[in-house]
Specification:
Length: about 300
Amino acid sequence: MLERYEVEAFLTLAEELHFGRTAERLHLSTARVSQTIAKLERRVGVPLFDRTSRRVELSAVGRQLCEEIRPAWDRIGDAFARAVDAGRGLSGLLRVAFNGPAEGQLLVGATQAFHSLHPDCEVQLREARLPEILPWLRSGEVDLALTCHPMREEGIATGPVLVQEARMLAVPAGHPFARRTTVSVEDLARVTVLQMPETLPDSLRDDRAPRRTPAGRQITLGPSAMTFNEILTLVGAGEGVFAVGAHARRYFARPDVVYVPFEDAAPVEWGLAWLTDGATARIRAFSEAALNVVQGAAPSP
């Protein structure tokens, strides 16, 4: 098997046909180039170059070796350059998933800010159902996603929290809670709490549907649904209640659902997520642009 330095020395000398110029291009001494070529020739068993006091030429065997190695070596170089561009470059295509209109609106602003700094990188926004976010990331269908936190999952990295909003309880319009100005986390022990799909990380499912209140009271868990609209439909049908972010009042207003603020619950958080081993320069730059956008003008619920 040829070593990289041997291939470079052979192909460069095949182009230059001069040991001195080859040494200059490779930042080596002429003696080192000569030693490398001599070593190759001993392994092949015949000269690869015909040398005289005035000129250096490829031998017949050397010419054949060059013609067969050169295309493969060029492909290796091109492949490596593409890998560097994918990992460190700021051009090409960046695919970003979101799973709701409020998230989409935030991403539009982030995309505009990112594109103003990196106009050679195209951003493609794609709407996904919440259970599709992780499969899309793992399969490479998208590069990153704006989603609910906490998203603690092996192989998934999350960026800084971009949005914090008041947590509210979606309740049926005819429920006694609908006539209240606030509810408490302890009130969850008095109702059935709907769940997110089992395909989502436990960290996120437990955040929206805990099994016990802070005082240790048991919470009754109800059915799960695949989409946010399905959950709200179950709420409106009286199947249970569900914790949401305050943006739901604006983007998901319904006559059969009322949103009541919690008086003592932690806020709902959103942020970007991507594969742990896929943090390219494009992803880091987009995450920074998104953070700058929300810090400059945080969206109101």
